Amino acid sequence: MFANSDARSPGLGDARAVKLLIAGGFGVGKTTLVGAVSEIKPLRTEERLSDIGASIDDLTGVDGKDTTTVALDFGRITINPQIVLYLFGTPGQDRFWFMWKELSTGALGAIVLADTRRLGDCFGAVDFFESRNIPFIIAVNCFDGADIYDEDEVRRALDIDAHVPVQFCDARDRRSSKQVLVRLLEHLMTTASAL
Amino acid sequence: MNAGKSLDGDDPGPLVRPFAVTRGRAGKDLHRLDILTLVMAARTEADTTGLDREYRDIMGLCQHRALSIVEIAARMNLLLAAVKVLVGDLIDAGYLIHRPPRPAEDRPDINLLQAVLDGVRKL
């Protein structure tokens, strides 16, 4: 990507990277969704809690060593020669990504991935994005064997505003996951136009 | 594309002493590098023979393409804070050029959103 034919002075030109966040409970399929649409196999990176600005008070109950890390899985989609889109999935067993200001700062928007068998697992993510005014949609990952809920039931259970879209999906399926991204971006356009 | 740590199998985690490679200089991020700051070799085929291994590895990853800090960290299996220090050194020395990510604006950029939407629809 960002190929440049001038070998003497390769430049970054107008290149820029943008990001979307994918949050939700443990095992809900965040990295699966990232992998379904990413042009690279999802990668993992880690940061020490002390390097993301978490204070000691926040770490009550955490292993007291300063080597505690927060992990992130991510994928990439090259949108065009200027724009590369990164998709960050937050490992669900780890609540400390909420403290990672750098992660949410500048994010275009977010997907909260939900499992109807454990809707409560995504309350934290919904609260986080609402409180930071980061626009988001709910994507319900339809697992085999999960009860089928309709949109209104999910909406009521999560207590989300009427304007927040709810999209049903299969995170393993590329087309379905792509449709989740399209729905989010359409929502972001609508939200931005209304400002 | 398989140089990075994949998500298969046992995950050994980052290096035990991640700041050994930065000689203990954690957090000295003078360029305010973001996880999505893009970096690229300032010159193609720059002579990196005098550099330490980690610096050469970064230069190798960024030789012909722009790469984000977060992707460099994942592909080198280093903590983000360590990579920021190393990349900062390479910027200071003129080996790398960098570009910050989109600033957090009050008002979203409609043209940018439209471009991203168009790109995703083409997947």
What order do the strands of the largest sheet of chain B run in, or round the barrel if closed?
2-1-3
For CATH, the homologous superfamily of chain A is named as P-loop containing nucleotide triphosphate hydrolases
Shape of chain B: elongated
Estimated structural class of chain B: mainly alpha
What does this structure look like?
The complex is a heterodimer of chains A (195) and B (123). The model of chain A is unreliable at 1-9 (pLDDT under 50). Chain A has a single domain, classed as 3-Layer(aba) Sandwich (Rossmann fold). In chain A, strands 2-3-4-1-5-6-7 form a 7-stranded mixed sheet, with helices on both faces. Chain A contains 5 helices and 7 strands. The radius of gyration of chain A is 18 Å and the shape is globular. Helices cover 25% and strands 25% of the residues of chain A. Chain A has helices spanning 30-37, 101-104, 123-131, 151-158, 174-193, and strands at residues 16-24, 43-48, 69-78, 83-89, 109-114, 136-141, 166-169. With 195 residues, chain A is of the alpha/beta class. Chain B has 123 residues and is mainly alpha-helical. Chain B has a single domain, classed as Winged helix-like DNA-binding domain superfamily/Winged helix DNA-binding domain (Arc Repressor Mutant, subunit A), CATH 1.10.10.10. Helices cover 34% and strands 8% of the residues of chain B. Chain B has helices at residues 53-61, 69-76, 80-92, 110-121; strands at residues 38-41, 67-68, 96-99. Chain B has a 3-stranded antiparallel sheet. In chain B, helix 2 (69-76) crosses helix 3. At the A-B interface, strand 1, strand 2, strand 3, strand 4 and helix 5 of A face strand 1, helix 2, strand 3 and helix 4 of B.
